[in-house]
TrEMBL record:
It is a single-pass membrane protein; Single-pass type II membrane protein. It is found in: Cell membrane. The keyword Membrane applies. The keyword Membrane applies. It comes from Shimia thalassica. Its main location: membrane. This is Protein TolR. GO terms for molecular function: transmembrane transporter activity. InterPro entries: ExbD.
Length: 127
């Protein structure tokens, strides 16, 4: 009775190069991924038909109750103080809840302009 011979590995067959490639891919994806901080509160943006999405790195959040947050600043006074050193060339995204009254947004716009905001994009969801 003859048994099949077990195949032995050749000396040059190694899994180390494959492990190296997988490790380099892991590092690549970790370095190129954008990790965004969590939102300060739940915001449901209004619906609109838009051609291009809002762009910008800086986001001002406005809740349905009128609460504001920008980075670590919470409350209107703190937010406007944080925007005091805003660079005029930067774009600010306004992520306001659909339940925010229009007069609150209208009263906020001159204050943002006074703080140095010249480019404001309203975040909305597509219909």
């Amino acid at each position: 009775m003859q048994f099949a011979r077990t195949r032995t590995r050749k000396a040059n067959e190694s899994t180390i190069p494959m492990i190296n490639v997988v490790f380099l891919l892991l590092i690549f994806f970790l370095m190129t991924a954008q990790i965004t901080p969590p939102e300060p509160f739940e915001v449901t943006p209004p619906e609109a038909s838009v051609e291009a999405p809002a762009t910008g790195q800086l986001v001002l959040h406005v809740s349905a109750e009128g609460e504001m947050a920008f980075g670590d600043a919470h409350g209107e006074e703190d937010v406007l103080a944080a925007l005091g050193d805003f660079v005029e060339e930067d774009e600010l995204m306004l992520r306001a809840d659909r339940g925010v009254p229009a007069d609150l947004i209208a009263s906020l716009l001159p204050k943002l302009a006074q703080a140095g905001v010249r480019h404001l994009n309203l975040v909305s969801t597509a219909r």
